[in-house]
Amino acid sequence: MSNIKDSISSGYYKEPVPHLTADSPFTSMMQRFHFAAEILDLDEGMFKYLSSPEKVVMVSIPITMDDGRIEVFEGYRVIHNSILGPSKGGIRYADDVTLDEVKALAAWMTWKCAVVNVPFGGAKGGVKVDPKNLSKPELERLTRRYTSNMFDVFGPDRDIPAPDMNTNDQIMAWIMDTYSMKQNKTETAVVTGKPIILGGSKGRKEATGRGVVTSTLAALSTLKISPSTTSIVVQGFGNVGSVSAKLMYEQGAKVIAISDISGGYYNKEGIDIPEAMHYSQTHGYSLEGFEGADPITNQELLELECDVLIPAAKEDQINKDNAPKIKARIISEGANGPVTANADKILEENGVMVIPDILANAGGVTVSYFEWVQDRHGYFWTEERVNRRLNRMMRESFDNLFIVSEKYSITLRQAAYVYAIDRVATTLKLRGIYA
Ligand code: NAD
Q: Which of 48, 190, 202, 303 has the fewest Cβ atoms within 10 angstroms?
């Protein structure tokens, strides 16, 4: 078997996101995708099929601004693949969002859904806008017109959006309402990430952090390490990072360092996580000035000696420059793309087990699937049931990847791509190509 570098230079590799740099998360994803395609010996036709988005829709979104002017925004929705079921993926509002980026993120969703065995394909949407420059009524008009323009794309059996960067439960509520008005009936299952009162799921807010912890506990058990004897470092103390830290703390682990954009906080005796959460919540969601630990930089934090490092802030945090200095035994990727493809090999050589993002942070999409199921049944689960089913699915997914990694003697990351691509390709072979 050739290595990643060889495989990206082979005949039919086609770079789908040309403007992105060598170390971008999307380029990293494509390198990993290609490596897995080689292991599975995918033929060229299947490779082309899985590399190309199924549908790319671009719309212009005219809205009347509060001062009476007409402004026109650009919106996208990309369905990468829907062979496993209706496509699923967030919508981001950002003034620098590009169609290429949305295409890459849509493919990422296909692999993530396949890894955790939810019956969804992958999609992503975007609107080129900085929502901070819009009033609330302008934001609502923009969202409703975008939804209206995407009416033929969205649908509970076709394509199901969710929140992403700069979009939230209120925006999902407007999408649901606009779609429902055009259908002449309430259709809650057309989006996930809605407010609970509108058909959202209990447990969704904590789901990603909970999934990070379930997969971390599974990894610890394969290494025969008890959670109560572990030291944990968490980068990022937002939704994913703070919930991961809290749940590991509740397992008896010692969380020795946390951080956010204001810097890192280190206490080798262990940080009181409920106190840190309270501090952050009462200080504008910032740890700045937190006195329960000593200040360190985010860079120093990543290189601390610990059992588990949970990068839960942003992409590209562990790269070829700092990967040799990482001393954690396990990296559990709470964020999307925190480790670059160039760092993978260094970490592997140093014996660091990486639980890849498409598994570790898939708790969010798993509970989105539960939300869709509950909406379709019109019957809502207790939080206890949501968490129990989430834990079971995450644990099963970890075990599936572990088996694949042992079978091919590859890392868990490589196993995740092999597993996901195999699942989509096998389904396609059975369904065949419609002509
Ligand atoms: P968030 O905005 O709630 O929190 C982000 C945290 O990271 C904040 O504490 C912020 O201060 C910190 N941060 C930002 N830049 C930093 C830096 N340079 N160094 C250290 N800390 C920094 O976001 P979130 O929802 O917790 O998402 C975090 C990551 O997880 C993102 O990559 C996101 O795409 C991914 N993710 C989130 C979900 C979800 O359900 N929220 C699901 C899947 C993946």
A: 48
Domain count, the chain: 3
Are residues 150 and 97 part of one domain? yes
214: domain CATH number?
3.40.50.720
17 lies in the same domain as 59:
no
Sequential DSSP letters for 77-116: EEEEE-SSSSEEEEEEE-TT--HHHHHHHHHHHHHHHHHT
Residue nearest to atom 27 of ligand 1 (CA): 240
φ, ψ of residue 7 to 5 degrees: the values are -65, -30
> Which of 360, 381, 409 is a domain's end point?
360
- 318 contact partners, CB below 8 Å, separation of at least 6: 302, 311, 326, 331, 338, 339, 340, 343, 347
Do 265 and 295 lie in one domain? The reply is yes
Catalytic residue annotation:
124
Residue 10: domain span: 1-51
Q: Whose CA is nearest to atom 36 of ligand 1?
A: 335
Q: In this structure, are 19 and 162 located in the same domain?
A: no
Same domain, 217 and 88: no
**Residuewise pLDDT in 10s, the chain (435 residues):** 333 333 333 333 334 443 445 567 777 888 889 899 999 999 999 999 999 999 999 999 999 999 999 999 999 999 999 999 999 999 999 999 999 989 999 999 999 999 999 999 999 999 999 999 999 999 999 999 999 999 999 999 999 999 999 999 999 999 999 999 999 999 999 999 999 999 999 999 999 999 999 999 999 999 999 999 999 999 999 999 999 999 999 999 999 999 999 999 999 999 999 999 999 999 999 999 999 999 999 999 999 999 999 999 998 999 999 999 999 999 999 999 999 989 999 999 999 999 999 999 999 999 999 999 999 999 999 999 999 999 999 999 999 999 999 999 999 999 999 999 999 999 999 999 998
Q: Kindly report the CATH number assigned to the domain that includes residue 70.
A: 3.40.50.10860
Beta bridge partners of 421: none
The ligand 1 site (C-beta within 6 Å) comprises 208, 235-241, 259-261, 298, 312-314, 334-336, 361, 364
Are residues 94 and 16 both part of a single domain? no
Tokens of 202: 């209990």
> CA 208 from chain center: how many Å?
8
Q: How many CB atoms lie within 10 A of CB 160?
A: 26
